[in-house]
Design goal:
By secondary structure, this protein is mainly beta. It has one domain: Beta Barrel (Lipocalin). It contains one helix and 14 strands. The chain has a five-stranded mixed sheet, with no helix packed on it. The protein has a five-stranded antiparallel sheet with strand order 2-7-8-9-10, with no helix packed on it. The radius of gyration is 18 Å and the shape is globular. The N terminus is likely disordered.
Length: 180
């Protein structure tokens, strides 16, 4: 009887956690490393990067932190506090190689509602990080080679950013004939 009750609770919890779907979706080949949401009642989730380092998303007293633990040094090399903890719906960490150099960049994506997502992209090498992109979008985050596309508004408009020479640049479209 206990087993049936536990099975029922586990299935019903998984069905109703994100009844309308998750607050954001990342397409284009990014590898999900770790995912946290307040509905799972977990204080800590972790995952392994392709480098062997560990990423930990933890629920601490005053919020959520994302930390990296170097595989050889076995200590916390960096931590990032996620703002707006009370309103957080989901925090995910992904790996993606924007510049195709074999070194994966890290994407920390989080949402405080079902209408907007916050994306922070870090260059990550040998346990050290550098913030290289800080964006806001809606529910769909599209990646293609060195391009990130983030829709905004309800008119099908998209902000696009290209990664070149260690930085992201916003793409703007211009009609050279002056007929914009």
């Amino acid at each position: 009887m206990k087993l049936m009750l536990i099975t029922f609770l586990a299935i019903s919890h998984s069905l109703f956690t994100f009844a309308d779907g998750p607050p954001f979706e990342v397409t284009g080949g990014a590898k999900l490393i770790a995912s946290w949401n307040p509905y799972d009642d977990l204080n800590k989730v972790s995952g392994k990067l392709s480098s062997g380092d560990e990423i930990v998303i933890s629920n601490v007293q005053n919020g959520i932190t994302v930390q990296s633990f170097h595989r050889k040094l076995e200590n916390n090399l960096w931590a990032m506090a996620v703002e707006g903890y009370d309103d957080l719906i989901m925090v995910n960490v992904y790996e993606y190689d924007f510049d195709n150099d074999g070194e994966m960049e890290l994407m920390v994506v989080y949402s405080t509602d079902y209408a907007s997502s916050f994306i922070q992209i870090f260059r990550y090498s040998n346990g050290l990080k550098e913030l290289i992109g800080d964006f806001m979008g809606q529910s769909l985050i599209s990646l293609e080679a060195n391009l990130i596309s983030l829709p905004y508004g309800s008119q099908g408009l998209v902000n696009e950013f290209i990664y070149r020479n260690g930085s992201f640049y916003e793409l703007t479209y211009h009609n050279p004939l002056g007929k914009d």
